[in-house]
Amino acid sequence: MTTTKYIFVTGGVSSSLGKGIIAASLAKLLQARGYRVTIQKLDPYINIDPGTLNPYEHGECYVTDDGAETDLDLGHYERFLNTPTSQANNVTTGRIYQSVIDKERRGEFLGKTVQVVPHITNEIKERIQILGKSGDYDIVITEIGGTVGDIESLPYIESVRQLKWELGDDNALVIHLTLIPYLSAAGELKTKPTQHSVKTLMESGIRADILVCRTEHELSEDLKKKLALFCNVQKEAVIQSIDASTIYDVPNMMLEEGLDVVTLHKLKLLNTVEPNLKHWNAFLKRHKNPKAEVTIGLIGKYVELQDSYKSILESFIHAGAENEVKVNVKSIHSEYINAENISEELQGLNGILVAPGFGERGIEGKIEAVRYARENNLPFFGICLGMQMAVIEYSRNVLGLKNANSIEMDPGTKEPVINLMEDQKNITEMGGTMRLGSWKCELVKGSKVYGIYGKDTIDERHRHRYEYNNDYRDVLEEAGLATTGTNPETGLVEIIEIPEHPYFVGVQYHPEYKSTVANPHPLFVSFVKAAHEHSK
User: Fold this and answer.
1) Which of 80, 164, 245, 530 has the CB geometry, 3.0–4.6 Å to 24, for a possible disulfide?
2) Residue 512 designated active-site
3) Residue 427 CA neighbour count, 13 Å, CB half
4) What end-to-end distance do the CA atoms of the chain give, in Å?
5) Residue of 176, 318, 462, 510 marked active site
6) Which of 384, 408, 497, 521 is catalytic?
């Protein structure tokens, strides 16, 4: 029986150093050598999942096929590896404690005092090993959120210490990602913060096996020697991670630094196959050498924080490379759009994407943007709430239903063209109760989307509570708003389009969750193509 190997990625000195990108890049290299790899994220916050978190707090909430609302890092894992993640790939402190408390209530601990050690740590260790014990993976990479030394990370760090001891050095290793700051006044890179971070890790009983150093300047050989000596690692295990122009450069940079070779050596795994990055590098070449460029307006209400629309922005990178077009995304706050300034705000755009979201703030601006795109033949793509705004706009301005609205924005509306879904009506809890995960959708032959997907039935991921009201479907269809995709079980309208328009497509699901480097999403590819046509 083959033993699954475990790699733990911890962070020090500062948050937001890119543990997720390093984990995904290493996983990509190991996958390119023929190993079966998956990545999971352990998040130290007490929320059960990011489902109820404001995007300003935590960036976007990513959704998996099996309906898990997860951390946005899982998006990176899927985009890099082109393999789906699941409930098991994201664990939070809230989920750990909830599980332990439930067991205590059921009497499973036989009257013992329930403590952080061993009960919480045992639960964490179990969660870490679920994917490994499935038999589907040779290597499981576990990214631990937060920074070493944080109070909330302590149970995770202790669990890693225990697991490393239980599994043995050949089966588990720790990669510590730190920052080497540059002091411009002194004109030099400083290693002291990293030394302190490694020391903090050692105080918890864990020795870092590999040190990955984020830096703005090249690390000299002397500096690497110094880090190796004072941080108790081998010199070849000091890996430089210099700032990159795109996250998609990082696997190649880690390959150059030998991160995968050191990792395989420490885990006593064979290192005979050279990594095959042919497709990856073909994508990078197209991405870096576009033949044209387009500007697309992203109409949203969380635009101040880039991470709020992370998957959408990455999907544009994949689709841009596929079209050999550079996509410039211009973020436009929907709260500040109105009938007076709309043409000025959307000037010079080759297409607009009206983004997903919740709540009534900025809604009228989104509706105004839809109207402008519809009337001016500007390529339009609406996702989730963006699709619902298109239905409202069409109902108001073409059908003449001036009071058309969504129950979400106006619970007393006389014309509820967007309604609360039947199975959502008695739900009082917010978290994990929406329509989530992958659902089937049947496409109408001869429609634009049928041509884009090239098949009758598709599977796409959802995250919504409100839906297109089928009571209005016939009148809207007669007025020219075609329904071209529906869920076969529920009759839920999934896709709308205006056939006469150059490109006017709204979808109830989230295509951005399924776009990867290897498989750019067809809707984004076709939308960028339409924007490129418009730019000519």
Assistant:
1) 80
2) yes
3) 15
4) 59
5) 510
6) 384
